[in-house]
Design goal:
alpha+beta, disordered C terminus, 245 residues, elongated, 5-stranded antiparallel beta sheet, Ubiquitin-like (UB roll), 5-stranded mixed beta sheet, 12 strands, SH3 type barrels
């Protein structure tokens, strides 16, 4: 929307939800200005509280009058590129939530139309035989699975072993309770189920309702074998392990 006239002054119009550069005419009345600001800010004229935020001014300058129909905005400190802020006097519950998109109808392309596109990610994968379009995918998946089981054997990851999970500086300790595949976790492969000593996990040994081992809530974790270090990691005694001060 343009406010352009021969005697325009450029200003920055801001509100809680909008910010844009506009041009105003000093001969406009306050009522005229508010009417023009409604489609810009979405705030009805009767609910607008206008202020000018002039650089180096101790506080914003209100643009208001008992007679807004006849008071021109030239009576206020209009300067090029000054900020004209529009506040909304309505209660929060009465204001539209422009950030809420839950009620906005979204377009979803039918799968048959998407399949016909030549410039989509799907078409690119088909051309390059990647992912599920790779004729050797099953063989590669089996090779990756074997590599992960080799890692399990090399790291001596077995059920009942004590371990440390993740980075050594975190010192998350626990006991291995499960080694194998977890169908409910995407991307497949080998997972190691750990019962952690502290409540630093994400579950109780189950994934999407299927139990792989049992432990207290937030003491269960499933991680990849390369994040497991097996060794002599006793349960930390918070009191006994404190250094004497």
């Amino acid at each position: 929307m343009s406010f352009s006239t021969t005697a325009d002054i450029p200003v920055r119009v801001t509100s809680d939800n909008t910010a844009s550069e506009r041009r105003v005419t000093p001969s406009w009345t306050i009522a005229e200005l508010k009417n023009k600001l409604e489609p810009v800010t979405g705030i009805p004229p009767s609910s607008q509280q206008l202020t000018l935020r002039v650089p180096h001014a101790p506080q914003p300058i209100p643009i208001s009058s008992h007679d807004e129909e006849n008071t021109q905005i030239a009576a206020f400190s209009l300067q090029p590129y000054v900020e004209l802020h529009v506040a909304d006097s309505r209660p929060l519950t009465a204001r539209p939530d422009f950030a809420d998109t839950t009620g906005v109808e979204k377009y979803v392309m039918p799968e048959e139309e998407y399949d016909k596109l030549q410039d989509s990610v799907l078409a690119w994968k088909k051309r390059n035989k990647l992912g599920r379009f790779d004729p050797n995918k099953e063989e590669k998946d089996q090779m990756e699975l074997k590599r992960q089981y080799d890692t399990v054997e090399a790291r001596k990851i077995v059920v009942g072993a004590r371990c440390r999970v993740g980075a050594s500086d975190l010192d998350r300790r626990g006991t291995i309770r499960y080694v194998g595949e977890v169908d409910e976790i995407p991307n497949g492969g080998v997972w190691v189920g750990v019962e952690t000593d502290e409540p630093t996990g994400r579950n109780d040994g189950s994934v999407q309702g299927k139990s792989y081992f049992k432990c207290e809530a937030k003491h269960g974790s499933f991680v990849r074998p390369d994040r497991i270090e097996v060794g002599d990691f006793p349960v930390i005694d918070d009191l006994g392990d404190l250094e004497e001060i």
